Amino acid sequence: MKESQPSTIYLKDYKVPPFLIDKTELTFDLDETTTVVTSRLHMRRNPASGKSTEPLVLDGGEDVKLIGLAMDDYALPPEEYRISEGKLIITATADEFVLTCETLIEPQNNTRLEGLYRSSSMFCTQCEAEGFRHITYYLDRPDVMSVFTTTIIADEARYPVMLSNGNQVEKGKTEEGKTFVVWHDPFPKPAYLFALVAGDLAVKNDSFVTQSEREVTLQIFTEPHNLDKVDYAMEALKRSMRWDEEAYGREYDLDIFMIVAVDDFNMGAMENKGLNIFNSSCLLASPETTTDDSYLRVEAIVAHEYFHNWSGNRVTCRDWFQLSLKEGFTVFRDQTFSADMHSEIVKRVEDVSFLRTAQFAEDAGPMSHPVRPASFIEISNFYTLTIYEKGAEIVRMVHTLLGAEKFRAGSDLYFDRHDGQAVTCDDFITAMQDSSGVDLTLFKRWYSQAGTPVVTATDEFDSASGTYRLTMKQQTPATKNQPTTLPLHIPVRVGLLDTSGKVLTSALSGSTSEEHVLHLNSSEQTFEFTGLTSKPVPSLLRGFSAPVKLHYDYSTSDLLLLMSSDTDGFNRWSAAQQIAVNELTMLINQSIAGESLSLESQLVKGFKALLSDESLDPAMVALILTLPSQAYLSELANPIHPAAIKEARQYLKTLLANALSGEFELLYNKHNIQGEYQATAEDIAHRSLKNTALSYWVETNSDQAHQATFEQFRTANNMTDQFSALSIAVHSNNAKATDMLAAFYEQWKAEPLVVNKWLMLSASQDSSDAVASVKALMEHTAFDLKNPNKVRSVLGGFGQSISGFHNEDGSGYHFLADQIILLNSRNPQIASRLCTPLTRWKKMEAKRSEKMKAELERILAQDLSKDVYEVVSKSLA
Ligand code: 0A1
Ligand code: ZN
């Protein structure tokens, strides 16, 4: 352990910056081993800070070597500045001056992938959140916005493409015969949005005419061998640009918009102004190499990064505690965009399923934090599901409370009022409130209170007056960090059905309708619906109108009724999931008690009815047929018995497969349509239902089903079908599975993104020697510890292996801890993210829990990065 622990930064300590940087002029003399960066910062004291004597403190990093410093062209002697803990401190400054700073950095040795680094043969940058300080000394905080001019000098033969933000304004030769290009970005921006790329890249060109008829050049750059995989992203970009004009009135502002794909990237993608940089896994797509899920992900992430141009870049965050201001809003925008491009309900089910599984688990774990955190040690640890997904749910609730029209007016006001500013989550809500007149004072608590609220509903019917009374209570669980919790303003969308499944009209507070939005804003409230003749079945929290856990004592027949008849598609899915959760919980308890499993499943009836309903979207049918995941059942369990959950899921799946084997075979054949691959909602739906049916059919262990799997693997003309067949074979003990895995590698070994899928599937296999297998995979030529995608594939896949990762002897936990320790110094962000499964130790059954804790203690005893230190120490606290 380090002698001094990293310090905590608090929101309450926020102060405006003492200095501003009006203009930033950067020159990069690019070289693999040592790059020289010269910055000229046009600075002045910030009048708003009210202080005239404070020293100038610039952020830097230990990997930045200062080789020259001058103020207004006067070289500063060493006694006039000092460097302490990575910061450059200049005691005396004028009120206005130009600071010139020369630094040396080593992109080749940058394994953290923050700042300027090398990926394959190119240079690229990643500056969010605090990467710019690894390039040069700067006021590296989002509320310092500056106009950047960037000069890149390099050998043109090796780096013919040299890019930065804004427009290219000059190009020429230096005296030494190198090439220089100059880029100018007229929009003031914080340093986290700075970007630079240089390499021997191929480009796809296109253009877009904005609603005000300006032509924008669009360019996607990749390494030459990947240029055939950017067409889908380009089309997705144009759809995003059009959608943002139509849905939000937001037009693109520069004359050029560029995207670059890089192989080594810590996250998905980055919204640098005019020059987005993408993890290649989130940009490249071709039918042969990319699954449907990945196609949809490419589209969503292209949209997300593009939408940031307004929600993030034109209006940015005052400080990193406000991260959800840009991320929550932008996720909400990309979710709505995807819903508009495909199916609204399917998209909502997928998003909620993810939120309920992963974000709810985060919010119940040691890293639980409010959407606007009050403190952090390392901001990189706060790019979380809470900031992104729960943040998007908050924006969605505002949309529900205001209605579409007022929400749009609120968004217009927000962008108009704050264009060019760095603002707060409060400013966003204030704009929504000011434009709509809806009081959001209480609602704002969603930003400051962590944890998932539990809403419990009970009801009664008064037949004499025809009144249905629905009582709702809410409680957000208290934790050590948050000993008292307060009621929130929770919008609950509700409909009522009669026992034949017909939708009922009722009156609530004077408004008569088939659906009502209840405003639950105190710890207990009763809502009275009138105009009814018998006790209805309530359809509660339609569309998942708030990120809460809802408890209502539904009978199985109520759930079957909702599943077959609710007009809210989301709740049809939700009811089926609830039946499955109830049945799986019984089975899990049998398994824990050491009993042999037995169940009369009501889902058989439900699925039969579902399969005979021709009116349903096949994608919805596939979602309803999908049993709750191991991860979701773990989130619901306390304590978690991983092996019991696995056994229960397997039992129920086999039971359903045997009871409906004919139906699944028929379904498989019906949706097994051939033809040229298209990533349209319709075709994706057919493939998804077909492959879901196949995953059941093989559970009958029929030769025919196994043969169909093998044939699909062999003959598929697209990666979705081929990889589904392979996964199904691997997880159903198909006799040919090992050969199929080997053949798949042989077929695709030249395609790194496909190889990553192979790594993940191989690592997820359940076998008693899974640790040995995963070690072998990490020795394989296809593996590379420097590449985050590969690390995520292998260790992420391994995490899904119950007999491997969760092996009772603790060997899986020990192995993961070894990898975290190894990566801690090389790439702290990745190491920190790998800790997540171990941090859930308190919820695990006793034996495994102790072993996980011991591994966390072993990690904490090392000399740790801030990133890993924060996550591990908080999870042991
Ligand atoms: N702002 C990006 C996410 C991002 C965050 C940090 C990064 O590096 C540490 C990279 C990307 C987004 O929301 O897409
Ligand atoms: Zn984002």
Automatic annotation (TrEMBL):
Ranges where the Peptidase M1 membrane alanine aminopeptidase domain occurs: 232-446
Signal peptide bounds: none
Residues annotated as domain Peptidase M1 alanyl aminopeptidase Ig-like fold: 451-553
SUPFAM superfamilies in the cross-refs: Leukotriene A4 hydrolase N-terminal domain, Metalloproteases ('zincins'), catalytic domain
Reactions catalysed: Release of an N-terminal amino acid, Xaa-|-Yaa- from a peptide, amide or arylamide. Xaa is preferably Ala, but may be most amino acids including Pro (slow action). When a terminal hydrophobic residue is followed by a prolyl residue, the two may be released as an intact Xaa-Pro dipeptide
Chain's gene name: pepN
Keyword Hydrolase recorded: yes
EC nos: 3.4.11.2
Family as reported in the entry's similarity comment: Belongs to the peptidase M1 family.
Peptidase M1 alanyl aminopeptidase C-terminal domain: residues covered: 557-877
Origin species: Marinomonas colpomeniae
GO molecular function: aminopeptidase activity
One Pfam family cited in the UniProt record for this chain: DUF3458
Cofactor annotation: Zn(2+)
Swiss-Prot/TrEMBL keywords: Aminopeptidase, Hydrolase, Metal-binding, Metalloprotease, Protease, Zinc
Alphabetical list of InterPro entries matching this protein: Aminopeptidase_N-like_N, Aminopeptidase_N-like_N_sf, PepN_Ig-like_sf, Peptidase_M1, Peptidase_M1_dom, Peptidase_M1_pepN, Peptidase_M1_pepN_C, Peptidase_M1_pepN_C_sf
Ranges for domain Aminopeptidase N-like N-terminal: 110-193
Name used for this protein in its record: Aminopeptidase N
